[in-house]
Amino acid sequence: MLLKGLPRIGLGLAALGRPGYINLDRTAQIAERSEEAMQQRAFEVLDAAYAAGVRYFDCARSYGLSEVFMRNWLAEQQQLVPGDGQIVVGSKWGYRYTANWQVEVPGGGAHEVKDHSLEHLNAQSAETLATLGGGGGSGGNSYLKLLQIHSATLESGVLEDKAVLSRMAELRDAHGWRLGLSLSGVAQGETLRRALETGIFDTVQATYNCMEQSAGQDLLAAKEAGLEVIVKEAMANGRVLRSPPLLAAAERLGCAPDALALAAVVQQPFEPIVLSGAVTPSQAESNCEAMALAESLRGIGEVEALMEALVVAPEAYWQERSELTWN
C-alpha cells in the first residue's frame, strides 16, 4: 500500500502553486502574488507542514507551479532520501493551467482547461516526469509515487478510453507509480463505481466534508476493494468554517474550527488521508492538530452530531461551489 502508515493529514498545493484560487478570504491571507513570493510562501507552508508531521503532498499540472515549488523545496531537504518512502508526492494530469499567472483572467476566461485525451496524458506525464522525477518502485530515486487523473467524470469519457487507461498502466510499469483518479461534482459516487470496474486504480481522491457527504458509502466500498482514499476540500473551500454549528462545537470542545472540520473527516470509516489546503504556516500547524483531535473525539458522538447538523444536498453544495470567485 502506498499511503499506509503515513500521517492522516496531507498537504495539497492547489492554493499554493498559483496566484489565484477559489478559497474564501484568500486576499487577506496572501498579499504578494509574484512567482518568487508564492514560492517563498510555499516553502514556509511546506516547512511548517513537514514539521507538524505531514508526509503526503499533492500537486497537479494545472496547479500553476506546484510541481516546481515541490521539487525546489525537496532539493533543500538534506535530511530526506528520495525513494525511501518517508515522503510521498502525488500529481495529476488532465487539466491545463491557462491563467498565465493572473488572479483574474481577462474577459472572464478559464483558469484551467480539461483535456483527458491520450495526447494530453502523454504531454503532461512527460512534464511531470521531467519536473519531479522517475518514480518510486523498488530502487526508485524519486519522491513521485502517484499519478492521478484530474477530476475524472463520466462525461469526459476518460474511464472508457482504453488507450488512455492502457497508457497509464504502461507509465505505472515503467516508473513504479501507483495510479489514481480525483473526482468532482454531484456524480462522484457514480464515477467511482465505474472506476472500480476498470481495475487499474490504487487510489481515489474525492471531495468530502461536513457539508458534502454524498460519496461516503462509495468511498467505503472503494476502501474495501483495496483502494486508498484521499480527501480534498475537507473545509469546503472555507465555507464550512462559517457554519454556526461548527463554530459552536469548536468553542465547546476548546479546539480550532479548522482542526475540528478536518478531524471529522479523518474519523470516517474509509480512513482517508485528508488534504490540508493551508496557505500560511499557522494554518498548516492548526490543520495538523486534527490528527490528535480525531483520536480524542472517538466514541463520544461529537463528530456524528456535527456531520448530521452540517450536511447539505450535493446539488446545492456544488451549485454554491460553482459560484465561488477566483481571488
How would you describe this structure in keywords?
single chain; 327 residues; alpha/beta; TIM Barrel; eight-stranded parallel barrel; two-stranded antiparallel ribbon; 10 strands; 41% helix
Task: Note down, in words, how this protein is organized.
It is a single chain. By secondary structure, the protein is α/β, with parallel strands linked by helices. It has a single domain, classed as TIM Barrel (Alpha-Beta Barrel), CATH 3.20.20. Helices cover 41% and strands 13% of the residues. It has helices at 26-29, 35-51, 66-75, 118-132, 162-175, 188-198, 216-224, 244-253, 257-266, 281-296, 302-310, 314-322; strands at 9-12, 56-58, 88-93, 95-97, 112-114, 144-149, 178-182, 203-207, 228-232, 273-276. The strands form two sheets. An eight-stranded parallel barrel has the order 1-2-3-6-7-8-9-10, surrounded by six helices. Helix 4 (118-132) packs parallel to helix 5 (162-175). The chain is globular and about 50 Å long. 47% of the residues are buried. Residues 135-139 have low confidence and may be disordered.
